[in-house]
Write a structure and sequence with these properties.
The chain is of the alpha+beta class. It contains 26 helices and 24 strands. It folds into six domains: 65 residues, Helix Hairpins (Orthogonal Bundle); 242 residues, 2-Layer Sandwich (D-amino Acid Aminotransferase, Chain A, domain 1), CATH 3.30.470; 87 residues, Nucleic acid-binding proteins (OB fold (Dihydrolipoamide Acetyltransferase, E2P), Beta Barrel), CATH 2.40.50.140; 83 residues, 5' to 3' exonuclease, C-terminal subdomain (DNA polymerase, domain 1); 127 residues, no CATH class; 68 residues, BRCT domain (Rossmann fold), CATH 3.40.50. It is globular. The structure holds 2-(butylsulfanyl)adenosine.
Length: 750
């Protein structure tokens, strides 16, 4: 079959074969481009193959393959570089999109630190370079290692390549004995244009933008290629240090510059929000003439002792933020609307677009959020886009805000095709046919199939093996798709992963004999699975993919319960109280609705009676529910979702089956020698030397659990002036109570 046969004339059988062929070609092209850095086809050919694949899928949605190239973003990291574990994690930055976000950022820092509005608080402001970050480790002044960011914890060792970049000094004089310098590798516009011209002439890969060119050049296995590519480096941060560089951010940057690093000349110290915004506007005005790509301005608290007090959230510092430039926009045609079913059953509409370049990147998909969004309404029923709905065939304006998935900003009604119809959002799950329902107050329609729905099951499994969960090497999204529903060696539940090797040994058709597998890859997979039989409790809880239980919630639960069986027992015990909570909520909701419609009185009565019936909650249930929802950061929504998951027969048996294969490691008590390790602490009243948020973060760092409510399990109450009912309850229960100074003395901060 030729590439040029029109999609419109393909028969079903031809289309099936063609999709298989295209998947093979695109897989190979991906491998060559991302893994071997040796592209075999041009970007244009690649895009054409992808478009053809998408067009056939749009015409024959039923034939879309599980491993469809439309769903793949790129290939996995190259195996060629050795891995480097960063001594200090490489973080990313939170984003501010407008001036209001910037003042919000400054206010939240003032609040966190308990600074009054007139107390001085300086920030550095500097361009956010659009390249890729690199960490350079110097020991005794000599460059010993260069590593990419990777997932923030583990990156790739690119030392040989970094040595070819002239902005990166090989030797430093007067540097701390250990110094990790961090910054951005980038390519100038002029160098980028010259490189692409040369590549085109030589029939090599033409890069979409300077950032891709810099990344592709740094991640060359052959450093002679990197040497021929004109890369540059700006230093703006640091990792491990044996001695501080300075007392301020500005001082540290000046010091790095004195050591021989390029630092950005547009870095300024600002004392107020208007100064920060004004410097942002200055930088924005110079953006087009800088000669290299920047995508915003980064603000950082100048005083390094304050940076230390502010610390980090899970992946971003509290003391810095990136103020992004407005997104670029482009118009294109909406070719189809597909529905994807997620891990929690959410039906997410995805726009399939005629490919268009937005800010240097080809965009062919965009999120459409939910059915209200398509219809032109926001979560509160108010009009968006002036109430214009989105239809297949429409001209839509798309934009990318940073690295996030593209979004649809507008619709051109003048170009709407004649006879087009409003989009009908499905009320049945496109994957399993179960009813898809939308609960009161939920913007999202969800498939009710639970684990019966193959899409939900597969998404849950993908989440289970993902990086922040079990992180099993060699078992990624692609392999999960392959094993799910497999005839010979299925992985349908998490527990199946841990019986894979044993089941394989009993099969005649062994995994090692399959296409794409061999003796080594199969035994590597089994070894990687074996390694994860021992798993930290927080990772396990997160991996289960329970709605509302994210990384932070999972960590809070693990810190509080410290043991899987204890948590499971507590959640079971709390069940009647959880149900009572929901019934009461529903009664309240019913009352709200009925307040507007007298005629619904009967329903209130019923709901009330139901609530009353479930109100007879055993004391143990109330106590367990109180403990659970009293954990700082865990509220009733998460509590109910957790309770539902544990009370759901299918999910519960999947958990129990999994548990039997694991050895679960309790969370590290970060400082077991600390006098408060393992203790449950409640803060109440006004704290004068620190804010509540800072007190909580500090207590947790010392291994304490921080709870929002006093119960028999509370070990210590820290009460400031104005403490009320909590102090009284603690006194009644005979719980040790300290004032703020007593607390600081206890933890050695006084
Ligand atoms: S500071 C702990 N400063 O932006 C914070 N990052 O979105 C460390 N970036 O991963 C980062 N220019 O690759 C910082 N002037 C700058 C930057 C910058 C670019 C990148 C960096 C980081 C990403 C976060």
């Amino acid at each position: 079959m030729s590439d040029t046969q029109s999609v419109d004339t393909l028969t079903q059988d031809q289309a099936r074969d063609e999709l298989a062929r295209l998947t093979g070609l695109l897989d190979r092209a991906n491998q060559a481009y991302h893994v071997s850095d040796a592209p075999e086809i041009s970007d244009a050919e690649y895009d054409a193959l992808k478009r053809r694949n998408a067009a056939i899928e749009a015409r024959f949605p039923d034939l879309k393959r599980d491993d469809s190239p439309s769903d793949q973003v790129g290939a996995r990291a190259a195996d060629g570089f050795s891995k480097v574990t960063h001594a200090v994690r490489m973080l990313s930055l939170g984003n501010a999109f407008d001036d209001g976000d910037v003042s919000g950022f400054v206010t939240s820092i003032r609040n966190y630190l308990g600074l009054s509005a007139d107390a001085q608080l300086g920030f550095t402001a500097e361009p956010k370079i659009d390249g890729l970050s690199l960490s350079l480790r110097y020991e005794e002044g000599r460059l010993v290692q260069a590593a990419t960011r990777g997932d923030g914890k583990v990156g790739e060792n690119v030392t040989a390549n970094a040595l070819t970049i002239s902005d990166i000094p090989v030797m430093l004089t007067d540097a701390p004995a250990v110094l990790e310098v961090r910054g951005e590798v980038y390519m100038t516009h002029a160098d980028f244009d010259a490189l692409n011209a040369r590549q085109e002439q030589e029939g090599g890969k033409v890069f979409a933008n300077p950032r891709n060119a810099a990344a592709g050049s740094l991640r060359q296995l052959d450093s002679t290629i990197t040497r021929a590519r004109p890369l540059k480096f700006f230093a703006y941060a640091w990792g491990e240090l044996s001695a501080p560089l300075a007392e301020t951010q500005m001082g540290a940057i000046t010091r790095l510059n004195a050591l021989g690093f390029q630092t950005n000349p547009l870095t300024r110290l600002c004392e107020t929000v208007p100064e920060m915004i004004s410097h942002y506007r200055d930088i924005e005005a110079q953006r087009a003439t800088l000669g290299y790509d920047i995508d915003g301005v980064v603000y950082k608290v100048d005083a390094l002792d304050l940076q230390g007090r502010l610390g980090f959230r899970s992946t971003t510092p509290r003391w810095a933020i990136a103020h992004k430039f407005p997104a670029e926009l482009a118009w294109t045609r909406l070719e189809a609307i597909d529905i994807q079913v997620g891990r929690t059953g959410a039906l997410s509409p995805v726009a399939r677009l005629h490919p268009v370049t937005v800010g240097g990147v080809v965009v062919s998909n965009a999120t459409l959020h939910n059915e209200d969004y398509i219809a032109g309404r926001d979560a509160n029923g108010a009009e968006i886009r002036g109430g214009k709905d989105i239809r297949v065939g429409d001209w839509v304006q798309v934009y990318r805000a940073g690295d996030v998935i593209p979004k649809v900003a507008d619709v051109d009604l003048k170009k709407r095709p004649e006879g087009s119809e409003k989009y009908q959002f499905p009320t049945a799950c496109p994957e399993c046919g179960s009813e898809a329902i939308r609960e009161e107050g939920d913007a999202v329609r969800r498939c009710t199939g639970g684990l019966i729905c193959p899409a939900q099951a597969v998404e849950k499994l993908k989440h289970f093996v993902s990086r922040k969960a079990f992180d099993i090497e060699g078992l990624g999204a692609k392999q999960v798709e392959m094993f799910h529903g497999d005839d010979v060696l299925p992985i349908n539940t998490p527990a199946d992963i841990f019986t894979l090797e044993q089941r394989d040994a009993q099969n005649l058709a062994r995994l090692k004999n399959r296409d794409g597998w061999g003796e080594t890859s199969a035994s590597n997979l089994f070894a990687a699975i074996e390694e994860k039989r021992t798993i930290p409790l927080a990772r396990l809880i997160f991996a289960l993919g329970i709605r509302h239980v994210g990384e932070v919630g999972a960590r809070d639960l693990a810190l509080f319960y410290r043991d899987w069986d204890a948590m499971a027992a507590a959640v079971d015990t709390a069940r009647p109280a959880a149900l009572a909570h929901r019934a009461a909520d529903e009664a309240e909701e019913a009352e709200r609705i009925a307040a507007a419609a007298e005629a619904r009185r009967a329903r209130i009565k019923e709901a009330r009676e139901a609530a009353m019936a479930t109100c007879e909650v055993p004391d143990a249930a109330s106590a367990a529910w109180g403990d659970l929802t009293g954990i700082d950061g865990i509220g009733a929504t998460l509590g109910l979702s957790l309770s539902d998951a544990f009370a759901n027969t299918e999910e519960r048996s999947a958990f129990d089956a999994l548990r039997a294969h694991l050895s679960i490691v309790p969370p590290e008590a970060p400082a077991s020698e600390s006098p408060v390790a393992g203790k449950t602490v409640v803060f109440t009243g006004t704290l004068e030397k620190m804010t509540r948020a800072e007190a909580k973060a500090r207590a947790e760092a010392l291994g304490a659990k921080v709870s929002g409510s006093v119960s028999a399990k509370t070990d210590l109450l820290v009460a400031g002036p104005g403490a009320g009912s909590k102090a009284k309850k603690a006194a009644d229960l005979g719980i040790e109570t300290l004032d703020e100074d007593g607390w600081l003395h206890l933890i050695g901060d006084a």
